[in-house]
Specification:
Helix content is about 35%, strand content about 5%. It is mainly alpha-helical. The N and C termini lie far apart (about 55 Å).
């Protein structure tokens, strides 16, 4: 049995969480995207029978507007409310200390997304 292709990549929230510790957000974003490019290159090369041959276009040192988009409904769990799929922020970490912020997530439905 062949071992499936796998690459460890940094989570998309990495620049924000690491910047909270005082590091440069732009440098962290560039680091994350370089990590993604390395991982995506390895995965792209591992595709032996792609449905369609598409060139891999690497990220730059920051996200471009075209890099951001709404996640398609079919890629998310069935029954997820529309407000969770919106581009509006609906969850935040709150607390007086880093430990409190790590342990406290406040979810609030955006006012224009409330069905009531």
């Amino acid at each position: 049995m062949e071992t499936p292709a796998y690459q460890h990549i940094l989570h998309p929230t990495y620049p924000d969480s690491a910047a909270a510790q005082g590091q440069d957000p732009a440098q962290l974003m560039a680091q994350m995207l370089a990590n993604w490019n390395t991982g995506l290159t390895a995965l792209h090369q591992a595709l032996t029978h792609p449905d369609q041959t598409v060139p891999l276009v690497p990220y730059g040192t920051s996200l471009a507007p075209g890099d951001l988009g709404t996640i398609p409904e079919g890629d998310l769990p069935a029954g997820l409310p529309a407000w969770m799929r919106s581009d509006e922020p609906w969850a935040s970490r709150q607390g007086a200390t880093p430990a409190d912020k790590c342990a406290t997530i406040v979810v609030q439905i955006p006012a224009d997304q409330r069905p009531f």
